[in-house]
Write a structure and sequence with these properties.
The chain is α/β, with parallel strands linked by helices. It has one domain: DHBP synthase. The chain is built from 6 helices and 10 strands. It has a 10-stranded mixed beta sheet with strand order 1-8-2-3-7-4-6-5-9-10, with helices on both faces. Helix 1 crosses helix 5.
């Protein structure tokens, strides 16, 4: 059964953030707000929590999971980034962009793409997400909260609670988010490739929209 935390979207209460993070550190999976839509998150190095997160979304190991990072310096610890890639990352962070990059050894193999050794990374521009990351002290593994068999992410915390409270350990309610997922850009090739157009404007990165 989920614990439900009502937090202020601009000034999240530290006491509630600390309680939510403690649930994550105890192996829980939580629904949290981001600058795009709500996401499911868990600890990166908790194998059973990662498996539980995948079961909730009903996705296999070929589905790219994303690391939510506090800033670019933290992101660079988990991905191999050259100067060209760094310039693009700087243009798109913080913000609603997910970047596909080659994972470093800091990322457990079981959470990177099985054939490509890549991972999605992003720096969210949302005060509640950033407060959770700061309290946690490390990135959180995430996936957009899209119910199995559906195509749109959820943005209403009451609906999330109603539909998922039996399988989630926590729901962090900061009000409605956007209903659009992030824009995904693959930076592992010679030129950046726009994989999915979402909330992030690709022209911000110097890319043409499809």
């Amino acid at each position: 059964m989920s614990q439900f935390f009502h937090v202020h979207p601009d000034n999240p209460q530290g006491r509630l953030i600390k309680q939510a993070v403690q649930i994550l550190k105890s192996g829980g999976v939580a629904a949290i707000p981001t600058d795009s839509s709500y996401a499911l998150v868990c600890q990166l190095d908790d194998k059973s929590a990662v498996e539980h997160l995948r079961r909730i979304r009903q996705v296999d190991e070929r589905h790219h999971l994303t690391l939510l990072c506090r800033d670019l310096s933290e992101l660079a610890s988990y991905a191999r980034v050259d100067n060209r890639q760094y310039r693009l990352l700087k243009l798109g962070t913080p913000g609603p962009f997910t970047f596909i990059l080659e994972a470093t050894k800091e990322v457990p193999r079981r959470v990177s793409h099985p054939s490509r050794r890549t991972i999605g990374l992003r720096v969210p521009d949302h005060r509640v997400t950033q407060a959770l990351l700061a309290e946690h002290g490390a990135p959180l593994l995430a996936t957009t909260l899209i119910p199995p068999g559906e195509t749109d992410p959820l943005n209403d915390p009451d609906e999330i609670r109603e539909r998922f409270e039996k399988v989630l350990q926590a729901v962090v309610d900061a009000g409605a988010c956007s209903i659009e997922p992030t824009t995904i850009v693959d930076l592992t090739a010679d030129e950046p490739v726009l994989i999915r157009l979402g909330l992030g404007d690709p022209t911000r990165l110097g890319l043409s929209p499809p």
